Amino acid sequence: MLENYLPILIFLVVGLGLGVVLFALGYFLGPHRPDSEKQSPYECGFEAFEDARMQFDVRYYLVAILFIIFDLEIAFFFPWAIALREIGMVGFWAMMLFLAVLVIGFIYEWRKGALEWE
Length: 118
Prior knowledge:
Elements: H1 6-29, H2 36-39, H3 59-82, H4 84-112
Helix pairs in contact: 3-4
């Protein structure tokens, strides 16, 4: 019974070993030239080490929520595309309805100006 798991164990050991070796090579052979631009906070739009009660722009969260909504939409496409032959036209039109609702939401957000930063 245990001999059935030997290929999995070998695969895990080789994968972990290769990951550690490549990470170490990148660390030791890569350039180490930090500057103020590389050390600055990014993506969030505000300094990371300040007062936790400071006010900041809420548009960052709006963009993040929109990204999550439209990114999760893609997660529904893969199982739908694989099972499209089995679910037939009913499944096809159900996905078209789903996409129509998302497009209407996207147009609404666009018209409200949620996608414009300035």
